[in-house]
Amino acid sequence: MVAGLLAVVVVVATGTACTGGAGRDRPRVAVGGQELSDQEYRYGQAPRPYRAVTYQPDVVLIEDGAEAVRSVTVDGLTWTLDTAARGVSDLAPGSVMFASSRGVGRVVDVRHAAGDTVVTIAPVELTEVIRDGEFASEQPVALDDPIAYSAEGALWTDESAVTEAAETSTKTASVRPATFTVAAVHQAADPAERERVSMPHPSGVPKGVSANGFTTTPRCCRDGVGADLTYDDGQIRFRASVLLAMQNPSARFRLAISGGRVDVAELQVFGGAGIKVSIQGDSRVGADRQLDRRFTIPVDFTVPVGHLLGIPFTLSASQEVLVKTAFSARNGNLSAAGSYDIRGALGFGYRDGDWGVSRPEGPIMRSSLVDSIKGISVGANGVVLTYKTTFTLGLGVLGFKAGLHFGFTVSTGVARGSALAQFFPLAPGTRGIDCRGASLSIHLTYSVGYAIPEPVVQVVNFFLRVFRARPIAASGGIPQPPGRMKIFDRPQYEPAGCQS
């Protein structure tokens, strides 16, 4: 398919792969029509000054970009930089660090040690980085050969850390990242920090990763975006596979910012083909305990768009999951599967205060969830699975991206009544009904700014307390809160009498 803007950028900005002299003689990695140094492959491309773009006055460009990076924590919040690199000495709490396409954020802490500068950042909005500039893709940007960045090991993937953060979350009103100032940021005395691991080397093919007790194998993007999920604690077992099927996905975008205000924002994603979902669950403990987990799959699929007027934008896909079980009896089990067709582009547009959303055609049922429901139990059982794919054109790392966001959320619920119903009907002399039910709903979300998934935001705020920084909001930008549109919602019941 057309290589899209990835090829155009190489012509417009010759030599974009070289961000510093240290990287010129190193091996190169080909990604989406571009050649990246190993440092750029790991940490992203560097920003460049450009006459047609005005940065906000508190933005500090690290012109050596990835070549200045020593290491990054897997959560993307703490960057260790070469103190001698251009721009590093200008970093201070309250400023905005722009080191690379992945290293962007409001500085909340700076430390110095043995020739290195350790910088901790918080999320920012695009308009906190760019004051004036117009950016657009002349051709579609292909998303079929991405880099897989793993965040496995981040605090927000740890089940105990998520629980602790939720239980101790502050009641202080959340604020935008721009409110971080020198006066508001002070390092706490002797902070009790959890061990934080470094970001691993990215790969082209994702492996199984762990998050909040689940083992997940995500996939993207030539045939779609999806994941296989597994949970087994010896009492409750859950397995699922979900896929937003696509055919050679690509995207187009347009962004215009003037005076620190978004005037135009458009993001269109092409290639949508369908939805496939399968669910299996069983429980040895019945109503004594249920599964209720929400998490972000810790793999970010990213394609470097290249330099547009000096800005190294990326196009990425991320995934979130919610799982709930409702088993009423011990040793119950439940399974179901379904597939649906969709057609048309996905996306949104914004211009001078007005919003528009592209609605796909469908879904058209290919195989029914309710017809496939199977399970044996002396009580009623149910399972809910919600899956969200978010496409982002912007800057930053998984969970903390500033840019244009478009989300596609599929929610499914399946339930089956007690298998004893056929033997013990509700009314004497009548035949019992073995009830089955399933639902499918689809929501679209859209925003320009930043959006942090739950429970990631709780863990991040828990971590930022170390620096006595005020908590950040789960989202920033426009609209506020992010826009949400329901495009499909249909329950099914078999037999028909079960609906009541």
Q: Major sheet: size, sense and barrel closure? A: 12 strands, antiparallel
Strand content of the residues, in percent? over 45%
- What is the number of helical segments per DSSP (H or I, 4+ residues)? 5
Q: Span between N and C termini?
A: 51 Å
If you had to describe this structure to a student in words, what would you say it looks like?
The protein is mainly β and 500 residues long. The chain has two domains: 5-125, no CATH class; 136-499, no CATH class. Helix content is 7%, strand content 49%. The protein has five helices and 28 strands. It has helices at 5-12, 38-43, 159-167, 369-372, 456-464; strands at 28-31, 34-37, 54-55, 59-61, 69-72, 78-82, 96-98, 104-113, 116-122, 130-136, 141-142, 147-150, 209-211, 214-219, 224-232, 236-258, 261-283, 292-296, 299-308, 311-327, 332-343, 346-351, 354-358, 361-367, 381-395, 402-416, 436-451, 475-494. Strands 3, 10, 11, 13, 14, 15, 16, 17, 21, 22, 23 and 24 form a twelve-stranded antiparallel beta sheet that branches. The longest helix is centred in the first third of the chain and has 9 residues, at 159-167. The termini are far apart.
